[in-house]
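Hi P.,

Sorry for the delay on this. The queue was packed all week, but I finally got your sequence through. Input first:
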Amino acid sequence: MSNVQKQIQEAIEILTYIAEDSSIPRNIRKAATKSVETLQDESMELNVRAINAIDLLDETTSDPNCPYHARTMLWQAITKLEIPPNQE
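Then the structure:
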């Protein structure tokens, strides 16, 4: 498993944790679930999947109802998904 795939897997684990945490508002859990589905959709290239997931998550971090602990985890996932060009 390459370093990039490892990062993607770590981001999926973080997002899965968020999606299953009942203390987090439903719309944020839904965005985390949708991001995981996007990352696992192999019909797109890896960098496109990562960019789409980052876009979804970035909108979610701006939500005023997002708890601080969830926002921190979302930022961690976004950081993992920032793949440098030509690194896939």
